[in-house]
Amino acid sequence: ASLPEIFNIAGYSGTPFLWYLVQMPYAKLGLGIAAQGALHLVIALAVGWLFAFRAPLPKLAKLPILFSYFFTFEYVAIARNYALGILLAFLAAHFYRDRERHPVRFGLILFALANVSAHFFFFSLAFFITISWTAIKKKVVARQASALILGALGLVFAVWQLIPPPDNHWGGVI
Fold first, then answer.
1. Nearest to 113 by CA among 8, 13, 9, 19
2. Terminal alpha carbon distance of the chain
3. Which residue from 109, 112, 153, 170 has the highest number of Cβ atoms inside 10 Å of its Cβ?
4. What tens digit of pLDDT does each residue of 99-158 get?
5. Secondary structure of the chain: what % helix, strand, coil (to 5)?
6. Beta strand segments in 86-132, E
7. How far is the C-alpha of 135 from the C-alpha of 84, rounded, in Å?
8. C-beta of residue 174 within 8 angstroms of C-beta of residue 168
9. Which pTM does this prediction carry?
């Protein structure tokens, strides 16, 4: 599909564009489903590495989580866009403390997180509310403007994509 067609598909599938966009180069090159598997393996390994080496948890707590049902099966084999969402959520958590020094990076992560899936939209929204509240409370809204603007744009863009088209399977009710 072309980029405009991907945006049109989002309203029918209930999934914003990012997962489709990440796969698009492999499809355009005709690499097939094996390329998607390789891409997903790289994402899953990045999630595992980030969690294993950057999560602020004791090592004994990390091991059972890394080999839990969700990390070894659900996020890896079933719902593939969830692995990208988990990666972006972990990146947002990892870079949260540096958000004031690198607001553009944090804003781009929030933008991407909002556009992975309808579920991760709410993760992005939670981060956005938190950084908005903190910026207002600390009176650093101007310094955080780029993160706030990018985060807000990501949320709005995700909602816009997820509005069901008139010919949806609900018969245009929504």
1. 19
2. 25
3. 109
4. 999 999 999 999 999 999 888 999 999 999 999 999 999 998 999 999 999 999 999 999
5. 75, 0, 25
6. none
7. 27
8. yes
9. 0.88
